[in-house]
Structure prediction request, 474 residues.
Amino acid sequence: MNALLLAAESAEHAAPHVETWITVLFGLILVAMIASLALEEKIHAKKSIIVGTFAGLCLILGTLLGLLPFGKVHLSNGHEIELPVYIPAIDWGVITIILGASLFVEVTSRSGVFTWMAIKLTKKSGGDPFKLLMAYGGLTVLFSAVLNNVTAMIIVGSLTTVSLKKLNRTELLLGFLLVEGLLTNVGGLLTLISSVPNIIVGKTAGISFVSFFLYAAPYVAISTVATLALARVRFGISSLRTQEEKGEAARMVSGFDENENVPSNRFFWFAIAVLVCFVGTLSGQSALPGGLDKLGMGFVALFFAGIMLLAYKHEVDKFYKTVDWDLLAFFAALFAVINVMEHAMVLDALGGGIAKLLALPQHVDTTVLLVSSALASSVTDNIPLAAMLAQILGNLKDAADFSPAFWWCVIFGANLGGNITPIGSASTVVAATIIQRQQLKLGFLDFVKVAAPFAILQIIIAVVYVLAVSMMFG
Prediction:
């Protein structure tokens, strides 16, 4: 029998006995939670409220059914402390990374460094539509890698709107904004901290920042070029042909001022220096001396956020208001739900199903896992999906025939699936919102029809890439 199946069966026998009906009950609760997240807009409720409600239900039922391990927490120094049962269930490393990175990006953006870079690229393009598409496409990928996808889409989308209106090329606006929305999820694959699924799966798999970048960067480059090439054909975004067209576009672009949003040169260069140090420290976090590596990436993010906040030390409260507390509350509740699901043996049941899926013939298993992850991510939130699959794969990773490629299938699938529908990711929701604000017609089915060829192309490239890398390096 396949070793993965044996691992799943041995884990099942070793786990404490839970009645089948209890596992089924909590499994239905999990399905209901995911369905509620998929219908978030129809329910008119925030993610934190939806998942928080299910977390409360799970904790109450888990307590009544005797599933949860109440008692004192034993520390390494021999002391014991009282903690609510749901506190140890929360992955505080993920919470601190999101909090620190959000604050850092918000303060750094006040320096004008991101806008400066965008306008510089626009001027470098000379007003040529396809060169401008390549510039903004590359900028979208870069911003999505160092910022969160939503922030990247908001910044690039607003700048794109201004650029095309100044160039009198608003007929290209729909194509530009849609492609940028799709590229946020491609760029979100570039680094370990580029997207939440990366953080969750990468942390569980033990993938370092540098290893993640070296693995993902070639795919991101290939997929970005392929996406831009398809956009050129699909939306008719061609280069300027005559000297007259090039001259007129160049005159328009020359009116752009990259320094108009830079409030202080001193703060501008300070922000650039800190940004370089921030990315560099994250890159080498695992090699920090004196045991500092044990503090984790969350501490690095919070530390550099604190450095940037020193520039606004008398008004830091306004930055605290910009933090997405709904997202942080959502995560805390989600981790509580997953913890209860683990005690109810739901994850073990899912693990058995995943093990059978992974027991398919070699290369077929990785293909099916990546594609199924993408399809699931397209209709529901990719965060709980990534968290659940990471937990399941974590229980199976010691099996003899477990492939490291499985981790990457979940990472690629969870990110790229967001490009299939406008609710597949937060950044595609933002892209669709910007498109509607510009009074451009693009409904749900229209989005799927236009985006599907791009998403299919990106997923096919991902499957081929993962298979090729796994065959090359085993």
